[in-house]
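Pilot study result, target chain (255 residues):
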Amino acid sequence: MRILSVKPYKKHYFKLENDSDPLILHQDTVFKHNLLNARSIDEKTLASIKDDDSYNSLMQRSIDLLARKAYAKNALVKELKKYDKEGAMLNSVIAKLEELGYINDQKALSQMVEETMLYDLKGPDFIRHKCENEGFEHHSIEDALSAFTDDLQREKIRTLIKRENKHFHKLSLQKRKEKLFTSLYRKGFSPELFKPLVEAFLNEIEATTDEAAILEKRLDALRPRYDTNDFKERQKLVQKLMREGFSYSQIKRHL
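Predicted structure:
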């Protein structure tokens, strides 16, 4: 095969124009086979070039993936199989990555758990599920999560309660409790930890919360949608307000 030109194509790659179909080759392949200076390639050399390029391209893809985030070995293998379906170069690439220290499940898992604990307001169940989806072993995840102490969780829960409550100030205290419980549970915290903290917070703000004013504002918003002179319509309004956490006695006083 006669080489017509070898020019940079995109990052890490060259385009080799020839008297047949052009080849897109990784830079390591180009340099190893001195293709910048070559004028022709025989069939044996071409086969060697293609094998080397399969390895180099898969290695480059691995490094690109690992640069974006930490991968468990199993998860990285699964991702790379999309590009090497026959697995011809996969084992060699994985072995080299392990040799270079680029794949280290324990280190990657510890980093993922630590970063989530430090920078995200998420609980252990959320982190556990996230790590399992990334392909880490269950027992390793539990070991890493041992650093997420109850005191650290309580600190995050208190921060979340204050933050979330700002969005719920138009709701009854009972409805706020339900919303806070749901939010904290979805974020991966244990009810055994967050329930007493939510209840203590709501008890603390109860004295300064005007439930009557909140109910009155809600009634003002809902009255145009209900004919309060009609018994059935009136009952529907009462039921809706009770679902929103207001007590029957409160509602009757305002209706």
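One observation from the pilot: The radius of gyration is 31 Å. A full batch analysis is planned for the follow-on phase.
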